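Q: My collaborator sent me two sequences in one message, no labels, and asked for predicted structures for both. Can we handle them in order? The first one she listed is below.
A: Yes, handling them in the order given. First sequence, followed by its structure tokens:
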Amino acid sequence: GRLEAVTQQMGYHPQYLDSFLKTQHYLMHMDGPLPFDCRHYIAIMAAARHQCRYLVNLHVLQFLRAGGDPQWLRGLEFIPPKLRNLNEINKILAHRPWLITKEHIEKLLKISEWSWSLAELVHAVVLLAHCHALASFVFGCGCEQDEGLGGRGSLKPLSLGNQCFCENTAGNNCSQELLRINRKRSLDSCMELDSLRERMQRIHVETEGREELRLVQQDREEGEGQEVEVGVQGGTEHCSDLFAGLSPLADTDGEVTGATNLACYMQDPDFGYQDFSRRDEDQTQVFRVQDYSWEDHGFSLVNRLYSDIGHLLDEKFRMVDGLQSSAMAKRQGCEPSVFKRGIWNYIHCMFGIRYDDYDYAEVNQLLERMLKVYIKTVTCYPEKTNSEMFDRFWKQFKHSEKVHVNLLILEARMQAELLYALQAITQYMI
């Protein structure tokens, strides 16, 4: 249930890893507006948009450990309407964040039995953006291991056994508190695995029993031999039982296998990224950072509605900007800051965010074609990242530089989603 492969990759940049783990821990495990089980279910919904089994499986286990209702794992049709109403903003933020409007915010906040508070919604938005961006990193660094596709992942994690990378970098800027938390989680994972496995198997047996009784009753009503159909409504597949979409049972190696069908966590699965340049000109305008920026607007709003998260996010944005990349930039024939800004602004440009003080001709000069193809794929549709793209692009970079590029993608994408969502919330409040 830990982000083991992710922390191993981020461990090439331990200062950033320290900042990332603090944010991850705060979002998921510290005091905040949302219940703990809902936080993990929102993470499942976000990761499913990009078919990221690695993150879905992680949060399925943590959802159950937090006391979540196993019935929710049957899909969106089995969760409370309040949580299900988040699906639209999840879909838009993941693929076309420029479509977010104050009307979407108003719909969620309107007075009703299932309305969200502003604080809850801000927490949810940060979680969605965090998990969408983390899915890009997972695919970009090859952490997603899908046995059905032959275990893709050209960038192999470091061989560190079952330890979290953070445990091996005590002298490299990882705080002792994070090490303590990580070791405790490792111990908790070992102690809880058997009980979790027994619980899931018990639920499975109970569910099978109820399903058998239901089928017998239906056969009596409709006639012997009639098969039960699996209905599809609005792109969401209704699982016939709890484990049609999820099978978190242990395999022979003691590992927990997870989601086999992510469709039950999604609606409108065909909705995906579309080039911003193809947008309806009358519907959407270019987002100008001079009018609404993280530093001047987003930071203060998010920090006011969800205490301290703004400081953690800001530290993470600054940390990735401060990472050393002199060798990487030297290969491109420019200063490190120029190269990093070119990548960052290129990512924001794909989401319709522009900087008036930047010459976008630099992007084509700094970033070769295969680098741009790779960045766009990992940013906009990470699930399409494949080993051929790794092979064609990564040859000239060190492994730590490859991870650095993916960290830039992660943070630039997350900030882009937050800017659109927080601007819409601001417009609603005004």
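Q: And the one she listed second?
A: Here it is, processed independently of the first:
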Amino acid sequence: AALLTLTRKRGAATYAQTLQNIPETQVTTLENGLRVASLESNQPTFTVGLWIEAGSRYEDPKTNGAGFFMEHMAFKGTKKRPGSAFEKEVESLGAHLNGYTSREQTAFYIKGLSKDMPKVVELLSDLVQNCALEDSQIEKERAIILQELKEMDSNLTDVTFDYLHATAYQGTALAHTVEGTTENIRRLTRADLASYIDTHFKAPRMVLAAAGGISHRELVDAAKQHFTGAPFTYKGDSVPALPRCRFTGSEIRARDDALPLAHIALAVEGPGWADPDNVVLNVANAIIGRYDRTFGGGKNQSSRLAALAVEHNLCHSFEPFNTNYSDTGLFGFHFVSDPLSVDDMMFCAQGEWMRLCTSATESEVTRAKNSLRNAMVAQLDGTTRACENIGSQLLHYGRYIPLEEWEARISAVDARMVREVCSKYIYDKCPAIAAVGPIEQLLDYNRIRSSMYWIRL
């Protein structure tokens, strides 16, 4: 009986209490421009990583793929830890090492026990400062990357989104794939990779972020010890400027009737990272929802488009997206369907866009806002997700935005704002389209363009 009483009295924290109880994210900028940020907690583990303002957008057609190649080389030994010694030292700590490259940023991060934080910071410093770039390792990784490129061609979702960037930002750096071309990977040299590091891995373009059971003061002390030598003494103004990328309404079609399913993405130009319209557009995407045949719920889902997809067997899956970059973005949806359902699915999806522009309701906005809140609080699960959030935000916004501020922005959204912002970006705009597979039923571009508005009498 006593146990039952204790269980009844024990209550979970409310949503508001959860936001108020989150520790403040501390940020310190070193003299060389390196930003050091941390979110302290009482967890026995932590994640620390470097987020760097570098990616395929900073590459030219001849060096496209250098950043992705460098990501592979980063874990293959340093001048202090040649060969596999680097990976073995990470493993001896029981830590987990990972990294990724995107169009505008590169990240390397390690998750380990809190007591090992100073050692992990030293390892990250060695990784970006003293990458060995041994010729034998370069040739080994070259073969691995070429094999990866072949495997990526079988992932039609990724292929579709690469085509979408290629047509939406044709002739600009955002049209590049992150992985680069096969020709580039075959001819990139050690000098090319060294030049990429020397150009982009500079302290003012880096954020050292950490989350978990660590002390901010100790993190700053470790950063001062290991991130103040060359190349981190760099203070010059010759950091390459971000190349401008202009959106173009156009299309790429890669028809292949031998494939079983059609992959189609349609997008308009969206806002950059710092634009406040992003919150409203994310609410709009939550209204549209997402669907996969493996989901439960069927036509009883709150998403009108999902209910239509189930009732009329329109697609295998669909998902809206809001992909942001520094000064532009792609706001759209992607779906996978049978060849004979392409036209019907496109019609219904564009109709849902028009409904958002003209008749979004308060009830569905309220539901969508709650969905965003749930996704926002989920960022608190685990140190790695929190660490990535801190590093990315400092690169994108120049500061870390606390969850309370995000909550205030979400709460301010209403149906009128959704209609106005969606009309601003969607209504009567020229879209970019990428389609792969058996797409004979996909209508002519001008017909799709004509469905970007409604003739109302």
